[in-house]
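Sorry to interrupt, but I need a hand with the structure work. Can you supply me with one protein entry, sequence and fold together? No commentary is needed, just the two lines. Leave the record below and I will have a look.
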Amino acid sequence: MQQLNVFLSKHSLKEIGSDQKLTSLLAENLKMVAVNQSGRDLKSSPTGNISNLLRLFREKSICGETSDSTVVQRLIRSLTLLTRAAGYRAQVDSTSISIVLGLLRHQVTNIRREAVNLLRNLCHDKLKVLEV
């Protein structure tokens, strides 16, 4: 996640778009998250800051209906895996929840499926359920 955060801190969201570097960093990030999350006790696992991922997620040019579906899938899958831990769920705001709800109508089935998984993870937090 560190490489992704460095990349995002050096570039504006308008510069990034569907940049190949972003696509490859999201793929690397997804692999790291999947490896780190497998077999962990998520209640006691330490959490980091996912504000950059959420910032990407809220950007319509990156995570909108007409965006590169590979980027959207990798981004939402990363968030799904991370939000298994309560510390990461707490960082997801109501704006991001609204975007997840919108992705339930996305034209790509895998994105809709991952949106459901992300919502399911968020529902483990009572306050998030009230926001939905």
